[in-house]
Amino acid sequence: MKRTLWIISSWICGFFYPLMAADTDLWLYEDSVLEVACSMPPTLVRLSYLRDMAYKHQHAPYNVFFATRLYEEACQQRNAFYENQGAYYLASYYDKKHDPDSLTYWVDILKSYAPKVGTYDYYLEQKAAIARALASKRKIAKAVLISKETLGESLQHRSSNGELASYNSLGCVYTVSSRPDEALSVLLKGYNAFTPNAKVSLKIDILSRITHLYGTAGNDSLNLKYVLEMDTLLQNVISQEPEARKNWTNYEVDCEFKYILYYMNCQNFVAVKKHIDKAKELLGEHLDPVYWLNLQLIQLQYYGRTNEYDKSIALIDEVAPIVLNNYVSTFATLIDYKATIQHDMGDLDGGIDTRMYLIRMQDSLDNTFSANQLQQVKEIYHIDEHLLKQQKIQGTNYSRGIMFLGILIILMFLFYLYTRYLSKEIAITEKLTAEAASQAEADNMAKERLKSEISHDIRTPLNVVVGFAELLTDPELDPEAKEEYGQIIQSNAENLLSYINSILELSRLESGKIKYQKLNCDVIHLCQQVLQRINSRENATVVAVMQTEIEEQWMEIDIKWFEALLTNLLAPMENDTEQYQVIVRVKLDKSKSQLLFDVVNTPLGKTHFENKTSSIRHEIHAHFVHYFRGIYKVQTEAIEGPTVSFALPL
Contact 226/188 with Cβ under 8 angstroms? Predict the structure, then answer.
C-alpha cells in the first residue's frame, strides 16, 4: 500500500512539475508587480497603479490577473469608479473568450455601477459584446435582440461608444448568419457615427468588418479606403501608447490580413509577400492563437496562387503537428489540401498515401475533437475561481486544521456511500454478466447460422463468375460465346451483390446499427402511393390492386421501411418473367386494435423456400414488423396463391 501511494505521489509531482516550470516567469513578473503595489499606500495611488497595469496588459496571460487585482483592491477601498473599471477589464477578458455566461455576470455588475460613476459606456460596450459571444454559439435570434436592445439604451443615455458597440455587434451577428447586405448597412451606419472622441478599438473593429464584407464581395475599389483608415488609426494609437503596444497586436495582424487579401485579389504577389512577412514579425505569445492559424492558411493560399507547391507541402508538414494538437477541426482539411496539391503535382502515389493516412487518423481525430469540445464547455461554464475568491483565512495552522477535519469527514462519508453503492453494483454486475454471456451465446449461434446459410449461396455464383471469366480469356473464343458468357457473369455478379447487400442489411438490423424512426402518417394513402408507383412502371410484370373499406388510418410507423416492405412484396425476383395479379387487402381489427395486411399472389411468397435472397428479405421484413410489435407470416401454399400476411398495432 505504501509503495502504491509513493508511486502515485511521484507521478503527480512528475506531471505538474513541467507546468510549474513553464509558468515560473509568469509568476515572477506578476509577483514583482504586486510587490510594487503593496509597497504603495492603500489609497488612490495604489488603485491608479493597478489601473495602469490592467490597461497595459489587456492580453493573455496577464489580462485576467491584473484586472482581478484591480477589482479586488477597488472593492476593499470601496471605490466605485475603479470597481467599474476593474469589472470592465474582467468583462473584456470573457469577451475575448466568447463566454456569454461569464460576460453576462460582469455586465450585470457594470449596470449597477453605471448610475454611480455617471457613464454608461463601459456597461453598454460589454452588453453589446454579449451579442457577439452568442453569435459565436449560433444563438442568432437572441444576439440580434440584445444588439438592438443595447442600441436603444445607447441612444437613451446618449452613449456614442455604446452606439458604436451596438452597430459593431449587430453587424457581426448579421455576418455570422449570412446576411451580408444587412451587415454592411448596419456597419456603415456605425462608420458614419464616428466621432473624434469615440473609442479607437470600436472604430477599428467596425472598419475591420467593413473591409471583410467588401473583400468577400470583391469590391476592392471600396475596400482599400477602409483598410488604409484602419491602418492609420492603429499607427496613431501605437505611437501614442508604446507601452500598451501588445494590446493592439491582434488588430495589427488583422490589418495585415486585410492588405494581403486585397493584394491577393489584385494579383500583386510582391505586396502580398511583404505583408505576410510583416504579419510574421508580429507573432508572439500574446497574440490570439487563431491569428497564427489564419496566417498559415493565408500562406498556403499565397503558395497556391503562385504555384509554389513544394513550399505548400513543406509548410503543411511544419504546422500539421501544431494544428493537430490545438486546432483538430482544421487538421483534416489541411491534410486533404496536401493530398490535393500532390495530385495536382502529378504525385498520385503520394496523394493516395496522404489520404490513407487521414483515414487512419479519423478515429483519433474524432476523439480529440470531442475532448476539445468538452474542454470548451468546461471553460464556458466555469467562472474563474480567482474572481470570486474571498479574503484568506487568518492563521495558517487554523486553516490547515479545518481542512484536515473537512477532508476526514468527507472521506468517512464517501466510504459510507461506497459500501452501500458496492453492494448494489455487485448485484447489477452479476445480472449484466449473465445477460452478456447469454447475448454472446446468441450472437455466436447467429454467426454460425449465417456462415452455414451463406457459404454455399455465395460460393456457387462466385464459381460461375470465376469459371466463365477464365473462359473469356481464351483467344479462340467466338464473339457470340463471349457475349453469352459475359451476360452469365453479369447476371451471377448482380445476384451475388444483391444477396450480400441483403445479408449486410440484415446484419446491421440485428446489431442495432440501423434505427427506425416513428412518424405519424396515413397508412392507407401510403399504400395507394406504392401501388400507383408499381403499376406505372414500363414493361411491368406485376399488376397490383388494393381492396379495403378503410378510407383513412393514421398510425405511427417508419415510412421509409414500410414503403420498402410493400415494394419488395410487389416486385418480382431477378429473371422472373411470370405475370402476377397481386391483391393487397387491408382490414381493421377493432377488437385487437390492429391493422391487418394480406398481400395475395406475391412473387416474394412464391419463392420463399427456393431463393436465399427472398428468405433474407422475409427476415428483414419480420424484423421491421416485430419492432413495431406486429406479426409477420408467409404462406406459400395458400388457396388464393402465395400470400404474405402481417399485422401492425394501432
Answer: no
- Report the C-alpha gap between 648 and 549 in whole angstroms: 17
Long-range contacts of 442-446 (CB under 8 A, 24+ apart): 446/510
What is the SS3 assignment for 51? helix
Phi, then psi, of 596 in degrees rounded to 5: -105, 135
For 552-572, the three-class secondary structure string (H helix, E strand, C coil) is CCEEEECHHHHHHHHHHHHCC
**247 CB-near residues (< 8 Å, 6+ apart):** 56, 57, 58, 59, 241
CA distance 384 to 106: 12
Per residue, the 3-state secondary structure of 90-129, as one string, reads: HHHHHHHCCCHHHHHHHHHHHHHHHHHHCCCHHHHHHHHH
Q: Which tops the pLDDT comparison, 383 or 39? A: 39
- Pairing outcome for strands 594-600 and 554-557: unpaired
Asked if residues 469 and 487 have their Cβ atoms less than 8 Å apart, the reply is no
Q: HSE on the CB side for 495, CA within 13 Å? A: 24
Question: Hey, which residues does 584 pair with through a beta bridge?
Answer: 546, 599
Strand, helix or coil for residue 178: coil
pLDDT at 527: 93
544 CB neighbour count, 10 Å cutoff: 23
- Are 649 and 612 within 8 A, CB to CB? no
Q: Which amino acid is at 109?
A: I
- Site of grid cell 495558517: 396
* Cell (9 digits) for 382: 466555469
pLDDT for 279? 84
- Length of the chain, in residues: 650
User: Which of 56-70, 110-124, 419-433, 453-467 has the lowest average pLDDT?
Assistant: 453-467
Q: The domain at 519-649 falls in which architecture?
A: 2-Layer Sandwich (3.30)
In contact, 129 and 89? CB cutoff 8 Å: no
- Out of 109-118, 334-343, 460-469, least confident range: 460-469
C-alpha cell at 545: 390492386
Domain ranges in the chain?
Answer: 25-97, 119-194, 199-278, 307-391, 464-511, 519-649
Nearest-angstrom CA–CA distance, 437 and 501: 29
Question: Which segments within 127-177 are labelled E, that is strand?
Answer: none
What element of type H or E holds 556?
strand 554-557
* pLDDT at residue 105 tops 90: yes
